[in-house]
Amino acid sequence: MTLLDGKALSDKIKEEVRVEVEKLKNEKNITPGLAVVLVGDDAASATYVNSKHKSCEAAGIYSEVHTKDSSTTQEELLELIEKMNNDPKLDGILVQLPLPKHIDTTTVLEAINPLKDVDGFHPYNVGRMVSNLDAFLPATPFGVMRMFEEYNIGLSGKNVVVIGSSDIVGKPMASLLINAKATVTVCNSRTKDLASHTKAADIVVIAVGVPHLLKGDMLKEGAVVIDVGINRLDTGKLTGDADFEDCKTKCSFLTPVPGGVGPMTIGMLLKNTLKAAYLRDKRESK
Ligand code: GUN
């Protein structure tokens, strides 16, 4: 069994981005910029945002974090986004999800200029991704695709089961896999007999937020398991949606948690921010 080392791969991607950012600064006098908006006091979200900010700085990307308290109104948030849409320092805008219940997520995401939508959550980018056109791809599934590439895990003609159908992971993951010519099954909490699907899978991607849902006896011999889940147990320990010790006896490739898909997400966000800066340069050079 080979461990898919997301930490090492993400470090490599961050270094690639750092080198390209330096080149962009030297050759074009362009500094890519990212704004991250955090609304409310969700501890996990605050950790992710902090980590995004630090990684940007390490890569030479200008970064600003806007922390708003949970009573912030939708109008205030939309005003801030409008300002950021018009701010030439910013190539990317990311609103950390989930948002407080009184704010309509769709309205907020649709307010972001699609050319600055480095999360790839605006319907413009979602539509382009589904149509296999150039687009900003959501960082987590984009990171998983990069892992497949790095470890030479072929997708064409493979049976892939995606467990979870969220807008952030499951749905875009399924789209990218379909574009790569995999045969894709998407399961969710209503799926009858989940194991009957996973047992037929060459590759399982799980993103449901249920610790240790996927067991070794649900897999076929030699399956690849990509565990997107990050769950904090009562002991404080982080664990995935797959039962690692149980699955590792059956798998050919397996992602650890932590250190698997998690770190990839930030690497791909930096890539998207760099892409946004290149696109700005292309538009301005016309
Ligand atoms: N919350 C969990 N994952 C993500 C992500 O990739 N982007 C944003 N904006 N919020 C998230």
From TrEMBL:
Q: What CDD domains does the record point to?
A: NAD_bind_m-THF_DH_Cyclohyd
Residue ranges of every copy of the Tetrahydrofolate dehydrogenase/cyclohydrolase NAD(P)-binding domain listed in the record: 138-277
Its EC number is: 1.5.1.5, 3.5.4.9
Domain called Tetrahydrofolate dehydrogenase/cyclohydrolase catalytic: residue spans = 4-119
What Gene Ontology cellular-component terms does the record carry? Answer: cytosol
Sites binding NADP(+) sit at G164, S165, S166, I230
One annotated GO molecular function is: methylenetetrahydrofolate dehydrogenase (NADP+) activity
Pfam families for this protein: THF_DHG_CYH, THF_DHG_CYH_C
Biological process, per Gene Ontology = L-histidine biosynthetic process; methionine biosynthetic process; purine nucleotide biosynthetic process; tetrahydrofolate interconversion
Please name the InterPro entries in this protein's record: Aminoacid_DH-like_N_sf (IPR046346), NAD(P)-bd_dom_sf (IPR036291), THF_DH/CycHdrlase (IPR000672), THF_DH/CycHdrlase_cat_dom (IPR020630), THF_DH/CycHdrlase_CS (IPR020867), THF_DH/CycHdrlase_NAD-bd_dom (IPR020631)
- Reaction catalysed? (6R)-5,10-methylene-5,6,7,8-tetrahydrofolate + NADP(+) = (6R)-5,10-methenyltetrahydrofolate + NADPH; (6R)-5,10-methenyltetrahydrofolate + H2O = (6R)-10-formyltetrahydrofolate + H(+)
Keywords from UniProt, A to Z, are: Amino-acid biosynthesis, Histidine biosynthesis, Hydrolase, Methionine biosynthesis, Multifunctional enzyme, NADP, One-carbon metabolism, Oxidoreductase, Purine biosynthesis
Q: In which pathway does it act?
A: One-carbon metabolism; tetrahydrofolate interconversion
**Subunit relationships:** Homodimer.
Role summary: Catalyzes the oxidation of 5,10-methylenetetrahydrofolate to 5,10-methenyltetrahydrofolate and then the hydrolysis of 5,10-methenyltetrahydrofolate to 10-formyltetrahydrofolate.
Query: To which protein family does this belong?
Result: Belongs to the tetrahydrofolate dehydrogenase/cyclohydrolase family.
Q: Which HAMAP family match?
A: THF_DHG_CYH
The protein here is known as: Bifunctional protein FolD
Naturally occurring in which organism (per UniProt): Halarcobacter bivalviorum
